[in-house]
Design brief:
alpha+beta; Thiol Ester Dehydrase, Chain A; six-stranded antiparallel β-sheet
């Protein structure tokens, strides 16, 4: 059986978007994950603040890594995000995913996206399908 670290390594090999965002895994374990990335100019919207799709994508990557960490392949089936504070150029964002429920076929997770000052940028909730397929 693969460790959570081995699974994330395998996932990142084919995850071009997380690579483009320069996502770094800070912590990984069974059912949880913290990832980070630095906001660059390509990530800004027309208001010169972080595009919501970037905070969503960072949270989605944390969800993917946390839910897959047990060794079963998981895919999201429903997600939502609430943006609470703008992020700006140069900010470092952290997405921390925690498992709220893990059943045989579904899992529910919460991801808090914060900046380098621990201010909440976004709150994300995701539900995944837990497949029988192993990593």
């Amino acid at each position: 059986m693969k460790t959570p670290q081995e699974i994330v390594y395998l996932m990142m090999q084919n995850d071009a978007f997380s690579q483009w965002m320069n996502v770094e895994v800070q912590k990984i374990g069974a059912g949880f994950c913290t990832v980070s990335c630095k906001v660059n100019s390509e990530m800004l919207n027309g208001f010169h603040i972080l595009h919501g799709g970037i905070s969503y994508s960072l949270a989605d990557s944390a969800l993917a890594f946390a839910s897959n960490s047990y060794g079963n392949q998981c895919v999201s089936i429903e997600t939502s995000i609430s943006h609470t504070k703008p992020a700006k150029l140069g900010d470092t964002l952290f997405a921390t995913c925690e498992e709220l429920h893990r059943g045989k076929t579904t899992g529910i997770y919460e991801v808090k996206v914060t900046n380098q000052d621990q201010k909440l940028i976004a709150l994300f909730k995701g539900t995944v399908h837990v497949s029988e397929k192993k990593w």
